[in-house]
Protein: Tetratricopeptide repeat protein
Amino acid sequence: MSGQKSNSTVLKSTANAASSIATLSGAIPPRRRETYREMKDYTTALTYYQKGLKIREEKLAKNHPDLAVIYHNMSKLYFSTQKYSMAKKYVQQAVEIGQEKLSSTHPHLVEYRETFEKTRKKQ
Structure:
């Protein structure tokens, strides 16, 4: 493996680069949150999701579609850790915002509904 970077190293490098850019704007980079989730570092990912959510909740309307994206991603994170009631709570919020703000065929809303059904079946 000489000369090649492991996937973990590449993902961490990507997260660090995104972090530098986001620091300038005072935001937590979405890619960093997803990187940690993909690496199955769920505790770190959750910390970043919660920080990102707090920032967005302070700056955006309660029904802003960007919040739905974060809620959905948090739901997927909780689903990955088998915390299905928390997963359902967050995806339900994503669906509610999506139904209010997006068309019924919007890809995000379709995905939120699919995640909701997948989560509901686990309970």
In short: The longest helix spans residues 7-25.
